[in-house]
Amino acid sequence: MSRSRRRKLMRELARKHRAILRKGIPVASALLVAMPAAYAQQAPATAGAGATAGGLEEVVVTAQKRVENLQDVPISVQVLDTAKLDQLNIATIDDYVKFAPGIAYVRGEGQGGNGEPGESHIYIRGIASGGTNHSGSQPSVGEYLDEQPVTTIDGNVDIHIFDIQRIEVLEGPQGTLYGASSQSGTVRIITNKPDPTKFSAGVDVQGNQILTHGGGYEVEGFVNIPITSNMAVRLVGWDEHDGGYISNVAGTNANACIFNGVRTFGAWSGQPEVSAYQANGSVIPNNYPCTPVSSAPLGAGSINNAAYVKNNYNPVNTKGGRAALRWNLGDWTITPTFMAQNVTTEGFFAYDPGVGDLQLAHFSPENSSDSWYQSALTVEGKLSNLDLVYSGGFFKRDTHSLADYSDYSVFYDRVYGSGIYWNGNSGNHIMPQELVNSRHDYEKWSHELRVSTPVQLPVKGTFGVFVQRQLHNIFEQYIMPGYGFVNPYGSSQNPAGLTDAYSIPTLFQTIWLTDETRVDRDQAAFAQATWDVTSKLSLTGGIRAYKFDNTLDGFFGYSNGYTSGSGMAHCFRDAAGNFIPTPVKFAPCTDLAKRIADHGTVPRVNLTYKLMPEAMVYATYSKGFRPGGVNRTAAAGIPPYSADFLKNYEIGWKTQLFDRRLRWNGAIFREDWNDFQYSFLGVNSVTIIENGASARVTGLESSIEWAPTRKFLGSLNFQWINPYLTQPLCSHGPPCPGTHSDGVYSYVWAPEGTHLPITPDFKGSLVARFNLNPIGKWEPYIQGNWTYQSSASVQLRVDQSAVVGGMPPYALVDLRMGATNDKLSAEFFVTNLFDRLAQLSRFTQTAPTLSDTSPRPVDTQPYIIPAQPRAIGLKVAMRF
């Protein structure tokens, strides 16, 4: 189709669109219905005929905040539409990242977490430095639910995928249109909207069994109810239970002082553990061996996990729903939505390889909950010939977890000899069992108003303003109850637990407390315009002016009685010498009140050339950013960290060949990440963020879909990438290595050329679906998919990577077979067909090595989060 003919067609579609709106048909439905119909009339040899004869369907996206054909968008976008989501049985973030080669992710990074769903952190195009923290950097990848951002700092929201129109993965910086936290890309989850033209409903029921482990089920349903000719409501609900596959056993890991389910804590008979001091004042304890159970009976330095031994003890329960109303008023459409979800878990989601595959020995109750809801409003309409969109939303998320943290006591006591300080009121040593009680409350509201000019104009643009406020209440309580977590008031062996002098005075037996309020404020104005220079050549330019203002207030640290460089000793006092009251509930005083504000701009320039109607190439320069922030540590000389920026240079192509039977999209790119934010554990395992070294990422991504006939559909997607440091990463910056003017020595943590963590060099997926000959009214099919990724490290620091270890390469194979009969379908599936013990993440609960002065290991007990073992299941779906 020629360029002029396409423009004429677009004008005709716009006229039909307006006419349809006046009749009360919603915008999304009109586009999805009218565009394929128009193409079928205007170009019967392409879309319409192609679909009938076995070609590929057109894919519609809103990546540039206007409705467009995927093949006309000069951005690297991977789309999982409704059909793909259903065919791949995608329900969670764990599922869709398998089929998005541009996304790397980890689940759980220690520091008292359980590695449960909701602790996932996703990264795009290798932009990862390792380590996240509630008081640290904002994410580098934005997450959107429809038009509203739902990005949170301490883990991606695991939105249940059902009745979803599509998932768009926008790769590369999206700073112009999506702003902060879309530094390296954006993931957009687009829901199905109410349709006033017809009633529809559906229900899916699934049962599954993880072989030799736990079983699960899934029940999902939706109903679309027209209320009037121009109003409809859509209701969606789901209830899912995932079986466990990690077992808490009475196992042995001698390196971690665990023998047959009993953990010992060294010399707790009153003997001094500290033998010397280093020149810098840090202690050198005796390297005591782990004491066997026979030498350290319970009550004299040991705990056991007999009360918590359980097979497959990490099940997950997910419940949620969504309601949406759509009201068409001539040229205007109003869509309020509400969505809520609750995820509860038990147990720990990683295993200890020192104990055994899919096994570990833990010593306390472990559980979590993650509840959130989002209310949103989208208003779309016309002012003259301008398209106006307002989107606003309020998002609230509450998470809570209880975790075993006895690793801290064992491994830190080896290095720092801290056990000599852990005493009860009687002066005797207490049992240094430690628990982490965490609660995080998030609130986010956002508003965006944008205006777009008609697409048929030779110069067209989108202009808007955006404002957002994120509130994060952080509560993390590190409890040392002795044996008192069975009886909160102690036992006859240890009546008082941790001495009152060492406990935070506002809470029971609490050695450390983090009780903070974090507020991140963002404001922005953005513009993006495209000039069709000729019928084949287009030039796009965009810019975003942003301003951020971030604060962190509250308390973190020890009590006055336990002096260790932070906590009450550094609380603010008034003129009379009294502690200043805190803005948070449980903090005894305020030792943290910091603020950082800044502003700037990020640009985008793009040149697109149409080689032919179904093939184009483009070149892009774009920039993404993350705001700066404050360091909460009380140690002197730790300044705030600055915003970091990602520059992207990209050449891409989009083609459809052989009468739309073959679609091949791809890009080659280079990204420069200068002075990036890097987080690490400093004194007392307090996270510090610095603008560290610089890095470069080069890569190739490719997406191929092939539908030669109606009987076969295949896809091959992959990314090859090389993310590496272009200068050494050092503990205190340049000179590196060397001594600063202030006398602080800077150590090399990772030399130039070190591979950035988490992202594998290669990740790809292959899907093949065969539609077999009908059997009566049933149309059977068989489908196989293969996903593979090469090895990857999880730590940027070389010394820490050596302790934690890397994730080896793995391949996973799934098999599905089923049949459809009109509106009924049934499917049998096997996931992880060859039962591979794929490693999705590795971590230690505390710092793997000393922070500055030595690469000597500290915590040498790594945990591994695996892919779910082989499972079989049956799914039945019906549409009405």
Can you characterise this structure?
By secondary structure, the protein is mainly beta. The protein has eight helices and 46 strands. It has a 22-stranded antiparallel beta barrel. Mean pLDDT is 85; it is low at 1-10, 16-52, 267-288, 292-300 and 486-496.
Based on secondary structure, the structural category is mainly beta
Averaged pLDDT: 85
Biggest pleated sheet: 22 strands, antiparallel, barrel
**Global outline:** globular
Q: How much of the polypeptide forms β-strand, as a percent range? A: over 45%
N-C termini distance: 38 Å
Helix content: under 10%
Total beta strand runs: 46
How large, in whole angstroms, is the Cα Rg? 28 Å
Number of helices: 8
List the helices and strands and how they pair.
Layout lengths: L2 H20 L4 H16 L4 H7 L6 E2 L6 E2 L6 E6 H6 L5 H4 L6 E5 L12 E5 L16 E5 L2 E2 L14 E8 L3 H4 L6 E7 L8 E11 L4 E14 L2 E12 L4 E2 L9 E2 L2 E3 L9 E4 L5 E3 L16 E3 L11 E14 L2 E15 L12 E2 L6 E17 L2 E19 L1 H11 L18 E18 L6 E21 L30 E23 L4 E21 L34 E21 L2 E12 L17 E14 L4 E13 L2 E5 L5 E5 L3 E15 L2 E14 L3 E2 L7 E2 L5 E2 L1 E3 L11 E10 L7 E11 L8 H7 L5 E12 L2 E8 L7 E5 L19 E4 L4 E9 L1
Key descriptive features of the protein:
mainly beta, 5-stranded mixed β-sheet, 46 strands
Structure in a nutshell:
The chain is mainly β. It is built from 8 helices and 46 strands.
